[in-house]
């Protein structure tokens, strides 16, 4: 049982580092109002989690990569704070695109990951 907690913790440590590094790099280059960093992180995380699901990894690897890494890499709380901030600043078009795009493209990313994972699993 302890190994399960260690797997989640180890994965989360690397997931949060990956998110911060990628987000900082995107924010350094992207200066517009649209929160592209969180958008890319969450979509890539949705795709990767779908891929893991499609490939069908072991329960231990699922804890390490799915629950740990992806749980810390993606960020629903930041997504919500950024939505509130876009609304507060009256950037309605960005708010609409960010919220709608995150859900629509997030679902598409998961589905694409599952499909590709299924192909990979079959060899």
Global shape? globular
Distance between the termini: 32 Å
- Taking pLDDT < 50 over at least 5 consecutive residues as the criterion, the unreliable ranges are none
**Number of helices, where a helix is a run of at least 4 consecutive DSSP H or I residues:** 5
Folded structure, characterized:
With 123 residues, the chain is an all-alpha fold. It contains 5 helices and no strands. It has helices spanning 2-29, 36-55, 59-73, 76-88, 92-122. The N and C termini lie far apart (32 Å).
Quick overview:
With 123 residues, this protein is an all-alpha fold.
SSE topology sketch:
Layout: H1 2-29, H2 36-55, H3 59-73, H4 76-88, H5 92-122
Family: Belongs to the fluoride channel Fluc/FEX (TC 1.A.43) family.
Catalytic activity: fluoride(in) = fluoride(out)
GO molecular function: fluoride channel activity; metal ion binding
Question: Which features does this protein show?
Answer:
87% helix; 123 residues; mainly alpha
